[in-house]
Amino acid sequence: MTNYFDLKGQVALVTGCSAGLGVQMAKALASQGANIVALARRKERIDAVAEEIKKTYGVDAIGVQCDITDTDRVNEAVKEVLNHFGRIDILVNNAGTGAVAPAEDITDEQFANEMNIDLFGSFKVARAVAKQAMIPAKYGRIINIASMYGLVGNKIAGSSPYHAAKGGVVNLTRALASEWGKYNITVNSICPGYFYTDLTVDTLNSDFFQQNAKTMIPLERYGNEGELDSAAIFLASPASSYVTGVNLPVDGGYTAM
């Protein structure tokens, strides 16, 4: 039987891989045989994630400390990965932040910080990985984690810098897909809706958000752990070889309405 999603021997670099969806996607890729680079700022967290992945999935995994807003450090981090593994086949640009406040009260610093991390940081990592690893190899799978809020606005939680940055990620995905297709590099994004994580569970289970789910989401619930995994595995795998420049909502239908 053909395993369309076999990633054995491949190397996946996941940013923001110290908690939440980043760790979930790293584990999903490891479950298909990929070796993992957990990249984030908190050294003890990423080392623990790498150790857990090694023990659970039997693949190689390392933690690499990096602030994605620091261009020099991003370039050095990619070199470190190449020194260890010799290749980077898959990049999941997951690191991000989110300022929540009414638009009229958002500060210049909040807006700039959001753009610097979510949009410019994603570009810096993609640029370094493509230049050092994927373009020379004539192969790559880049998955940018945007958001359904990169596609639409919202009324329940003012977060205009987040919408702007993730909207930028959506079109950056199209731009990089167009430029790097000639190198056999595909660039796609996943646009998640609300998902349960350690940080969101209390908020999403509140009466207000539960009612919001029934009103705004066709499936009438929020995303559970694991429901992002199949999208990440598909876009990371050889099976998605003719899919590029796509922004895939995984949002229970939120953006369909």
TrEMBL record:
Spell out where the chain crosses the membrane.
none
UniProt xrefs under NCBIfam families: PRK08213.1
Q: Which InterPro entries match?
A: NAD(P)-bd_dom_sf, SDR_fam
- The name of this protein is 3-oxoacyl-[acyl-carrier protein] reductase
Species in which this protein is naturally found: Kandleria vitulina DSM 20405
Family the entry assigns: Belongs to the short-chain dehydrogenases/reductases (SDR) family.
Keywords in alphabetical order: Oxidoreductase
Coiled-coil ranges (or none): none
Q: Which GO terms describe its molecular function?
A: oxidoreductase activity, acting on the CH-OH group of donors, NAD or NADP as acceptor; quinone binding
Which BP terms from GO are recorded?
bile acid metabolic process; fatty acid biosynthetic process
**Can you tell which superkingdom this protein's organism belongs to?**
Bacteria
